[in-house]
Amino acid sequence: MIRLAVRVPREHAELVLAELLAFAPGGLEERDVGDDVEYVLYGAEGELPSLGDVRAAVGGLLVDVSAAELPDDWGQDWRAFHRPLDVPGLRVRPPWEEPLEGALDVVIDPGQAFGTGLHPSTRLTLELLASLEPAGALADWGCGSGILAIAAAKLGWSPVLACDVQPESVEATRTGAAANGVRVEVSRCDVRQGGPFAPTVLANLIRPLLLQVAEVLDPVPERLVVSGLTLDEVDEVLAAFARHGLREASRREGDGWAAVELLHSPA
């Protein structure tokens, strides 16, 4: 197994992440390293290059790249990385962890690429989602491994629609929904051109994608939860959606990230 790490200054992280996602449709790890962000991809030998430590061009920038072969016992270390995530009334966990008594149980098998919701943006979105009263249909744009869509179905939203541009994400969400005994209608979509409509939409994306979503948003949902934003990005993104009459109703912040609930209130 190869571990490939790309380290980039924080101010350029979004640009590099957008490029890397083309090579990591299942997702990747994101780590804060001082003033830098490190993105980590895992793959079998032959899937990722074993480069050693080099400087490489990604997204038009020179970044530090390191690749290393992982030891045979890496699987146990990898399992230790994926821990349960608890928000009020809900636990998201990998299959080898135990359910939490009294909490709705969402089981996500992370494989070697998909995460189980430990990134702050996912956790904050789940906190917002768990605080809402389920009210009919919900759509998850950019569903990844399906954590948010599956959690929404467990919480009582119905129907739940999910979409992602990557076929691996579509398949992972379908598999995860079946394993959790819930129904999620999953399709492929490019969120830059819109996604399946529902009165409530979750968009746990990154700033450039959210700004593109704001440009094409039609029709406008009654509620939109945006996340994947660092604190210094929130105002710009909220201003873009305010043009559609979407105003902040609540937010969650933590570890330098934010998730914001917007409600439609046309002037």
List its salient traits.
267 residues; alpha/beta; Alpha-Beta Plaits; 2 domains; 7-stranded mixed sheet; 5-stranded antiparallel sheet; 7 helices
Write the layout of secondary structure elements.
Layout: E1 2-9, H1 13-20, E2 29-33, E3 36-43, E4 53-58, E5 61-69, H2 74-81, E6 85-87, E7 90-93, E8 104-107, H3 120-131, E9 138-141, H4 147-155, E10 160-164, H5 167-179, E11 185-188, E12 200-204, H6 207-216, E13 223-230, H7 234-242, E14 246-254, E15 257-264
Parallel strand pairs: 7-8, 9-10, 9-12, 10-11, 12-13
Antiparallel strand pairs: 1-3, 1-5, 2-3, 4-5, 6-7, 13-15, 14-15
Characterize this entry briefly.
This protein is an alpha/beta fold and 267 residues long. 26% of the residues lie in helices and 34% in strands.
Describe this protein's structure.
The protein is an alpha/beta fold and 267 residues long. It has two domains: 2-74, Alpha-Beta Plaits, CATH 3.30.70; 83-264, Rossmann fold (3-Layer(aba) Sandwich). The protein is built from seven helices and 15 strands. The strands form three sheets. It has a seven-stranded mixed sheet with strand order 11-10-9-12-13-15-14, with helices on both faces. A hairpin with a 2-residue loop joins strand 14 and strand 15 (257-264). It is globular.
Number of E-state strands: 15
Overall average pLDDT = 84
How many domains, as an integer?
Answer: 2
Q: Estimate the helix proportion, in percent.
A: 25-40%
Report the biggest beta sheet as strand number plus sense, adding barrel if it closes: 7 strands, mixed
Please tally the helical runs, counting DSSP H or I stretches of 4 or more residues. Answer: 7
Helix-strand sequence: EHEEEEHEEEHEHEHEEHEHEE
Considering the protein shown, what is the CATH homologous superfamily of the largest domain? Vaccinia Virus protein VP39
The CATH architecture of the largest domain can be named as 3-Layer(aba) Sandwich
Assembly state (oligomeric): single chain
Strand fraction: 25-35%
CATH T-level fold name of the largest domain: Rossmann fold
Q: Numbering strands along the chain, what is their spatial order in the largest sheet?
A: 11-10-9-12-13-15-14
**What separation lies between the terminal Cα atoms?**
55 Å
Q: For the CA atoms, what is the radius of gyration?
A: 18 Å
Task: Give the overall shape, derived from the CA principal axes.
Answer: globular
Low-confidence stretches: none
Q: What structural class should be given to the helix and strand makeup?
A: alpha/beta
CATH class of the largest domain: Alpha Beta
